[in-house]
Amino acid sequence: MTADLEPATRRLADLLGGVDDAMLAAPTPCPGYALGDLIDHVGGLACAFAAAGTKAAGDATSQAPSGDAARLGADWRTRIPHDLATLARVWREPAAWSGMTRVGGIDLPGEVAGLVGLNEVVIHGWDVARASGQDYDVDQEALTAVYDFLRQSAGPGQDGDRGPFGPAIWLPDTAPPLDRAVGLSGRDPAWSPTARPLPGTIRTPTG
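The chain above was modelled as a monomer; its predicted structure follows.
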């Protein structure tokens, strides 16, 4: 399976444009990560998954992306959207989805790495939107791909029903599709900066 990452990366870049300096210390759905830390992580994952798509070796693919606002630098508002656009462009190439690659120090088939990258962009887009008080929407193709990926990786019997960001929260079929995907990723879809998390959930960014 392949997917177009461009709509999701563009939406995330738009959200970053709505973050001002005063918001960088805001809490996010990821405990221990302020919004600035999460944005640094987004920048790192954009580079990591772009490198994975080209099968490049090196630090970008051998370790998990950082999450430290102190590493953002003054150029992050132009640099990270540029890197997100590069990520989408790399994964438009059929070769990115074939063979084996490496990301976060883990060897993966290209097809799996591409879906993991799309999942990271979509779910962290939700994180950024919630933390910064912005609306969030996802194109149907990307949402379907992410939901199917999460349903398989967090399904019953799969690592204790654990999603990539924490224990899965299962919602009824009547819930909005984005809420269901967010829940499968290990997040409370009702999260807000002032809400208390559901008991037993763990939400920490991964590479």
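The chain has one domain: 6-158.
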